[in-house]
Amino acid sequence: MKRSFLVVIAFALALGLLPVSAPERALADVDSRPLEPQAGSWRTYVLSSGAEIPVPPPPGNGSLATAAELQELLTLQAQRTPAILAAINFWNDSPAFKRWTERELGLISTRGTNTTRAQRNLALVHAAVYDAVIATWHWKYTYHRPDPTKLNDSLLSAVPLPLHPSYPSEHAAIAGAASRVLAHLYPLDAAALEAEEVQAMNSRLQAGTNYRSDVVAGQALGRAVADAVIARRGPAVDGSNLVWDGTGQLTGPPGSGFWERTAPAFAFPPTTPLAGNWRTWVIPSTGAYLSPPPPGFTAGPPASINVSVLLPEAQSVMDQVALTRALDAEGARRRGVIAVWGGVPGNRWNRIALDLMVGEQLNLPRAARVAASVNTAGADAIYVPWKTKYTYWTARPQTIIRQYLDPTGTWLSFRPTPPDPAYSSGLSTVSGAVSEVLAFYFPSAAGAVRAQAFDAMQSRLYDGSHWGFDNQAGYAAGTAMAPQFIGRALNDGAAPTAASSRRRS
């Protein structure tokens, strides 16, 4: 008779096959309730449903193919070394897509992906991961294949066993989906990403949690999901391949208050002027959340900006940056806030979301659901201020300060001013939207995530790259659109239950 899971874990510990924390982790695994058996019916982002991509049935439990696969797992079990165990634990980290989120954030940084494209890329990858998880769950609970340890007493899993069927492998599906979309977005890194995909798949064989046919089917499913995402949300479909022809810019003589090439780099063209027209994920359009005109703006024709209205704001920005540069406790605090919120908005917000998922012990389908919500909200929320920026073409504070308030004409913001119009702030908009989405999913953390959003907004005032009204308008737009993402979550079929939300993926 099959020995109990706790006995297996104890034996594995004696052999040195598991980290010392495994007994505590294993206690949750004696619960035999299935994990989110209905997740395969949850609403997807790109696929028509979790059943869209067919997956053939696995080999039968008594088949020669299954016997051969079990023998392979026993052979791999005998070959476990500390290095292999470290790789198993690396890819087994929770949630199962965490390493791929971290990988994408690293690529965004090393490849210098600009803000709008970074938020778009994060949405593509996490929508693909979520749809792959939902599709995987559909087929898991179609075939109900037990994990390989159920058929052989000698096979010891190197990690706590999930509470769901093994076919197809969710880790392989995530790897196939994430690596393939990332390779599409970062072709120079395609070979490295494919190698990591194989490592992630092999880790499930080395751990003894899945048959080879589980990971092969999972990889094929994940890759098919990725192909659907690329085909249905690719550059030619969402408009991100269009190139600005230089028309539509509001301008005037130097000092007129409209955006000008910003010192010291004087980069041109400005960042992705057409991103405000890219296809959204959830909100009906970017125009639905276009901010009202900024202070001093008159539509015309011709459009104009009353610079005298901006001058008190410009002095305030100078004062704020002086406080930031001060060598005292307040200056240090401000510089710390700026450092935390430097870079693309999705960097910090994804790390906050991952921490919340781990803290709440969300299982994989629910964690993937949160990640998809956060990142599609982040994409839609960055497109909205880009629509606003290239509607009003407002000058950055640095431009006005150098022209009117700084006698030397050399004043610089603490953080380099980005090469796009000021109004409104992308970080503030994303932070308003994402913080409200996270407050919905994690109500006990609502105050904390809203405080993070406030810090994000303030960071752009502390560094002098934005006007105060940029931040306020962006935050207001972000919080205004948040109900769209929350409404989708309330109607996606994933009604929360206390028992089903806990982690065991």
Number of domains: 2
How far do the termini sit from each other? Answer: 26 Å
What name does CATH use for the topology of the largest domain?
A: Vanadium-containing Chloroperoxidase, domain 2
Q: Tell me the name of the CATH class of the largest domain.
A: Mainly Alpha
Strand order of the largest sheet: 1-2
Task: Output mean pLDDT.
Answer: 92
Shape: elongated
Strand content: under 5%
Structural class: mainly alpha
Extended strand count: 2
CATH architecture designation of the largest domain: Orthogonal Bundle
* Residue runs with pLDDT of under 50 for 5 or more positions: 1-32
Count of helical regions: 18
Report Rg.
25 Å
Largest sheet: 2 strands, antiparallel
Ordered list of secondary-structure elements with their pairings:
Elements: H1 5-14, H2 22-26, H3 64-78, H4 82-91, H5 98-110, H6 115-143, H7 170-185, H8 190-207, H9 212-233, H10 235-238, E1 297-298, E2 304-305, H11 307-325, H12 329-340, H13 345-359, H14 364-392, H15 397-405, H16 426-441, H17 446-462, H18 468-490
Helix pairs in contact: 4-8, 5-6, 6-7, 6-9, 6-14, 7-8, 7-9, 8-9, 11-15, 12-17, 13-14, 13-16, 14-16, 14-18, 16-17, 16-18, 17-18
Task: Please provide a written account of the structure.
This protein is an all-alpha fold. It has two domains: 5-237, Vanadium-containing Chloroperoxidase, domain 2, CATH 1.10.606.20; 311-490, Vanadium-containing Chloroperoxidase, domain 2 (Orthogonal Bundle), CATH 1.10.606.20. Helix content is 56%, strand content 1%. It contains 18 helices and two strands. It has helices at 5-14, 22-26, 64-78, 82-91, 98-110, 115-143, 170-185, 190-207, 212-233, 235-238, 307-325, 329-340, 345-359, 364-392, 397-405, 426-441, 446-462, 468-490; strands spanning 297-298, 304-305. Strands 1-2 form a two-stranded antiparallel ribbon. A hairpin with a 5-residue loop joins strand 1 (297-298) and strand 2. It is elongated and about 85 Å long. The two termini are 26 Å apart. The model is unreliable at 1-32 (pLDDT under 50).
